[in-house]
Target: Sigma-54-dependent Fis family transcriptional regulator
Amino acid sequence: MNSTALKDSLYPEFGILLVDDEPSYHRSLGLMLERKGGINHLYYCQDSRQAMDMLETHSIGVVLLDLNMPHKSGKELLSELTEAFPDVAVVIISGLNQIETAVECLRLGAFDFYVKTTESARLLEGIKRAIQLQEIKRENQELRHRVLSRRLDSPEAFSDILTQSRSMASVFQYLESVARSSQPLMICGESGTGKELIARAVHAISGRKGKLVTVNVAGLDDQIFNDTLFGHRKGAFTGAETERAGLVEEASGGTLFLDEIGDLSHSSQIKLLRLLQEGEYYPMGADRPKRMQARIFVATHQDLAEHQREGRFRRDLYYRLCTHQVQIPPLRARREDIRLLFTYFAEQAAEDMGKPAPEYTPELWAALQNYDFPGNIRELRAMAFDAISRHQQGPMRASDLQLLRDRPPEGTPGKHDTLVQFAPDNRLPTLAEMDEILIQEAMHRADYNQSIAARILGISQPALSKRLKRLRDNLKNGIEPE
Ligand SMILES: Nc1ncnc2c1ncn2[C@@H]1O[C@H](COP(=O)(O)OP(=O)(O)OP(=O)(O)O)[C@@H](O)[C@H]1O
Model:
């Protein structure tokens, strides 16, 4: 047995076992796979009687099997193999071009059938397909396992992403199951939902030793895109006085994160597609290609599926990019995170500004809960910093939040006087929350005169006093309105 398994970075994650009695064919196929496909996690077996043992002892995902071998024929081995290892993909590479044999092998469970004289590019494409399918199968199994056990292997990688939402926990579980894949990852979500934080977390648990290199591709014209990603040789164009490595090279052994991919120009889309299809690229002015050693992440706040349907984004590129895809929910779809995040950012702001962190009124929470956050967490963060900078004393109130975009213009009468909006998509406040909001508002309008506030509310002054006391006690004990 010979294997390349000692190399630093192995692709794919599982082994590819070549079973053939001809060492010269092993050599040429191995070289072709490594040079043209970057496939270097290879094991060789010359004696077909040993193949089953190798499958027992190594993590093999794909077997490349010859048919005509002494001792045990390929067909015999195929039957044993598909029975004992139904999850392994077997690609037959036969010396004979016989249609009946091909049909029989496929019936026995082979994934694909090629003859040895097949053009190497076609053979490579077929083997890559088998690898990709295996990767997806394994990731699926891994994901099912994680979802059922509701666990994360590396919770620390996600510790910068504050959340208590169940939907985000599922996002993390999915990301862990695809973190070690070599396939691209597409991160979708509205602006400010934390896509860049997600990219960093997934890179951290990808097992890749290289860097995460980020580039925003929106607005890059095709020439700049080309130079930024692929670099150039000295003298490649007027002004190219020194050689420059592109970001694909900088991300070697790591991850290249292309942000705002929905804004990539059409000509640059073609270049990116070629890079993904061939795994190779030409720095400007170079006559030999370089092999890409980076994994690609992309992010977008746009609906790329729709762009693709409308012809604004190349369909072939879209399908290459979305093998693994995650949708980060907007903040309004995980309102349970609002209080956690606001408190966190407000405390951070207070510390930065040397102020004590304030208490918060229930009315403030209700106003935040009923706001849509079109700018998501980025907007919430800015809102918390702004509120702390202007806050003077006492508990922080809804009126300290100047950034509420849908706040009615000053002086709008009626129900708009309060910050609580009754938009159809918003959660309605509970009666208990409404009670508190009304009391706070009445006290504010009455300039904290209880008798006047009681009159505004249509209750007696002792009744208001009792409610105020209960409110203060709840606030002190951190109890939420039911
Ligand atoms: N769950 C979170 N916990 C803590 N901070 C967060 C969280 N989500 C986002 N942030 C912060 O919000 C801001 C915006 O996040 P980020 O830049 O990752 O968003 P994005 O989705 O990439 O935005 P864009 O699409 O505009 O590039 C950053 O300051 C980030 O640190």
Q: What stands out?
A: Residues 1-6, 404-419 have pLDDT under 50 and may be disordered. Residues 351 and 357 are 8 Å apart (CA to CA). The domain at 2-140 is CATH 3.40.50.2300 (Rossmann fold).
